[in-house]
Amino acid sequence: MRVLDAYCGTGTIGICAAAGSNEVQVTGVEQVRGAVSCAKRNAAANGVSDRCEFIRADATQYLVKAAKAGEHFDVIIMDPPRAGSTPEFLSAVANITPERVVYVSCNAVTQARDLEVLRTQGYRMERLTPVDMFPHTKHVETVALLERTR
Description:
By secondary structure, the chain is of the alpha/beta class. The protein contains five helices and seven strands.
């Protein structure tokens, strides 16, 4: 199973996916050089560096190029910044046609906007889970699981 971990930071989510199954191959994409270095070290420390590749690139540019090249991912995990994703990234998701999209967000407003775009492109939200990582603040992370309908 090919998994794209877009906006991966230090690779935590993709590394957890790889550690959960020997069948998972993860490509993590992050534009911050130091975070990519940390992701590579984290994968090695967790014994999954043979199944995790981390690339320093802009997530939108990477995915648009991958879609044009005909690449396929079974699952796309995305954890964009507070501003949300880009229309180009979301369009490329639809072109790659993963069976599942996992959208992690720290901004419910931009996540709702992006989820509506993905809905119009053939994805249905199966589950939405709030995660209170910062108790006693107004901030809540949300994790949405989407499945392809077409």
